[in-house]
Amino acid sequence: MVEDLLKNYENVCTLRVRMPISSDLSNPRNFITKIARYEKVVNIPNSMTILDELLPISIEMAKRNLTGIWNFTNPGVVSHNEILEMYREYIDPNFTWTNFTLEEQAKVIIAPRSNNELDATKLKQEFPELLSIKDSLIEHVFKPNRKTPVA
């Protein structure tokens, strides 16, 4: 694995990005835009990377000459259903979706999917202001794109 080779170099910083999300909900390649268009979704929690928050941190990491392997995700996990509930709350109050099981999903996708939680403790210790995944989604993605009235 490339990580095994690179960890031998003292001047390398490897950022493990997981399911990157940006605030650009008009982009068809955005994770949220994708799952909002799926006919069915699997409700599994995952670690994710909110680019609007973490990309500036990557610049700061370079300035600090940080090296090594970093799980470059917001702390915690969030499920597809939780993201779609936020989408409904902030973007489209009439939005609905249907769930299916991992077994049902496996029958209709070409490439298998992985679901996992990465430990972001090291990143959080270096950047204590880093928001949890759910808070970051609201602050950096859904609030700036809000289309529903504020209650």
Automatic annotation (TrEMBL):
Which terms under GO biological process does the entry name? S-adenosylmethionine biosynthetic process
Q: What is this protein called?
A: Bifunctional dTDP-4-dehydrorhamnose 3,5-epimerase/dTDP-4-dehydrorhamnose reductase
Q: List the source organism.
A: Sesamum radiatum
Q: A GO molecular function for this record?
A: methionine adenosyltransferase regulator activity
**Superkingdom, taxonomy of origin:** Eukaryota
What does the entry list under GO cellular component?
Answer: methionine adenosyltransferase complex
